[in-house]
Amino acid sequence: MPDRSETPKVSQPAVRRFSLYYRTLLEAQGAGAVSISSRELAERTGVTGVQVRKDLSLIGSLGKRGLGYPIPALMRELGRILGLDRRWPVVLVGVGSLGTALLNNVRFRRKGFPIVAAFDIDAVKIGVPVGGTPIYHLDLLPHVVRQQEAWIGIITCSADAAQLVCDRMVEAGLQAILTYAPVTLEVPPGVSVRQVDTLVELETLSFVLRPGRELSEDVDRPVG
Question: Which of 25, 47, 83, 137 has the most CB atoms around it within 10 Å of its CB?
């Protein structure tokens, strides 16, 4: 059984599945369930039962044959591994249509990822809160990051400004960045970048829709 005082090494595809398991468990708990089998978890997430059991074996012997996994305990362990047992303040740069939509999404705060500040260079937007979030000039990014003890940055500005914004975030001390800009960002070692590319996801779906096409399992590459 793994030492629960340490976080096990988990592949990037497994991290995504853990997040999916966590949300599914949250829904099941909300419906009154107290336990769940690997088969049910597989059916509700679209992951194979073998993969579910392999993933959850990293957590330890929580499951019992015939009884399944106790949902509260499993959520607690998944939450610990995913870092959901604490609050992660977020800052956002680029208060356009996408940025505004994200600022108005209350789920981030509820899930422990409050967007505590947003930044832009448009004088018309600066000083006008969106979704209750204050909007500052980009030049104040380092000061606000320190003041709010922010950990994560979200880039929703134009593609041609994304690298500059990314550099400013790194200089401000942020080590985790989520970008919606359709460009590859260069960052120094120790800084993690995740890109949300809607076009890539649509192209993946178009591949699946072609007759006779089927996606194979991702290759697991450990992170951390």
Answer: 25
Mention every residue, 6+ apart, whose C-beta is less than 8 A from residue 28: 36, 44, 71
pLDDT at residue 150, rounded to an integer: 97
Q: Rounded to the nearest 10 degrees, what angle do helices 141-148 and 159-171 cross at?
A: 50
Q: Are 94 and 156 in contact (CB under 8 A)?
A: yes
Own/partner pairs, 1-6, CB within 8 angstroms, 24+ separation: 1/60, 1/61, 2/58, 2/59, 2/60, 4/60, 4/77, 4/80
Buried b or exposed e, range 5-33, using 16+ CB within 10 angstroms? eeeeebbebbeebbeebbebbeebeeeee
pLDDT greater than 70 at residue 185? yes
Mean pLDDT of 122-134: 96
Tokens found for residue 161: 């400004």
Angle 39-42-48 (CA atoms, 0-180°, nearest 5)?
100
E-assigned strands of the chain? 10-11, 35-36, 69-70, 90-93, 115-120, 135-137, 152-155, 176-179, 192-195, 222-223
All structural domains of the chain: 10-82 (1.10.10.10), 90-201 (3.40.50.720)
DSSP 123: T
pLDDT in tens, 17-64: 998 999 999 899 999 999 998 899 999 998 888 998 888 888 776 656
CA distance 30 to 121: 42
